[in-house]
Design goal:
The structure is a single chain. The chain is an all-beta fold. The protein has strands at about 5, 10-15, 20-25, 35-40, 45-50, 60, 70-75, 80-85, 90-100, 110, 115-120. Strands 2, 4, 5, 6, 9, 10 and 11 form a seven-stranded mixed sheet that branches. Strands 1-3-8-7 form a four-stranded antiparallel sheet, with no helix packed on it. It is globular. About 35% of the residues are buried.
């Protein structure tokens, strides 16, 4: 059903910015919450941000809420994560996900993209 493809990762210096994109090739965003998660080497996958299918509300992890912005372009079937003031601790593989509930637990999300690498150098 849902097909998610992330892009926009790369290497950036501390304090820099990146914008990640997640395209729903299956065009089924509307019934779903869309989220961003990340996983650093040796760590558990952690919640970053979510947005309701309509784009009407958002939630953020405390570690990113003043720096990252999640948004949605329904016409393009795309969810974005604008990341500003990046820190080395933001280095991780970032995953787009679709789910049926508002949750920060990765186990509650049902469909995942393959991830895009974000590396922040000192």
């Amino acid at each position: 059903q849902v097909q998610l493809v992330e892009s926009g990762g790369g290497l950036v210096q501390t304090g820099g910015s990146l914008r990640l994109s997640c395209v729903d090739s299956g065009r089924t965003f509307s019934p779903y919450y869309m989220g961003w998660f990340r996983q650093a080497p040796g760590k558990e996958r952690e919640f970053v941000a979510l947005i309701v299918g309509s784009g009407a509300s958002t939630s953020y992890a405390d570690s990113v809420k003043d720096r990252f912005t999640i948004s949605r372009d329904g016409a393009k079937n795309t969810v974005y994560l604008q990341m500003n003031s990046l820190k080395p601790e933001d280095t991780a593989v970032y995953y787009c996900a679709a789910g049926r509930r508002r949750s920060s637990n990765p186990s509650d999300w049902v469909t995942w993209g393959r991830g895009t690498q974000v590396t922040v150098s000192p």
